[in-house]
Amino acid sequence: MSAHRLIAYAETFGTEKQNLLVEELFKNYFGQEKFLNDKEVLIAAAEKVGITGAVEIINDPKAYESTVIEQYNTYAKGVRGVPFFILEAPSGKTVTLSGAQPVDAFIDAFSHIA
Q1: Is the dihedral of CA 73, 77, 82, 85 positive or negative?
Q2: What is the pLDDT of residues 69-113, one digit of tens each?
Q3: What is the per-residue pLDDT across 10-32, written as a single tens digit (0 to 9) for each?
């Protein structure tokens, strides 16, 4: 979870820096077979892409924990694509649509919850 918290923190530096960090972590994991829960690996990756303050974030297990939990909860709801729609009728019936969908899929979904 430390890598996820660090990635959430990296967003405060802008999406470009965050993307650079993710890319660096991918290189570490897939290219160099490094363990991404190793504090030194995370700190080195952050420093390499110019993200300061990584040590404090990694050493504080509560830092950005709520952000990561929120992301996990979203994933647990079945969000696998963008855009993602949750259609809910007053009756409580719900339908979800994930990813780009044709118009007919929306018509069917609205018909189902009507």
Answers
A1: negative
A2: 887 777 666 777 788 888 888 898 888 888 889 999 999 999 988
A3: 999 999 999 999 999 999 999 99
Report d(CA 52, CA 16) in Å as an integer.
15
Distance separating alpha carbons of residues 21 and 45, to the nearest angstrom: 7
Please indicate, yes or no, whether the overall pTM of this predicted structure exceeds 0.70: no
CA gyration radius, the chain: 19
Phi, psi of 88 (to 5 degrees): -130, 125
> How many whole angstroms separate alpha carbon 33 and alpha carbon 36?
9
Q: Where are the alpha helices (DSSP H) in the chain?
A: 2-10, 15-26, 39-48, 54-59, 65-76, 103-113
Q: Check the CA dihedral 63-38-48-59 and report its sign.
A: positive
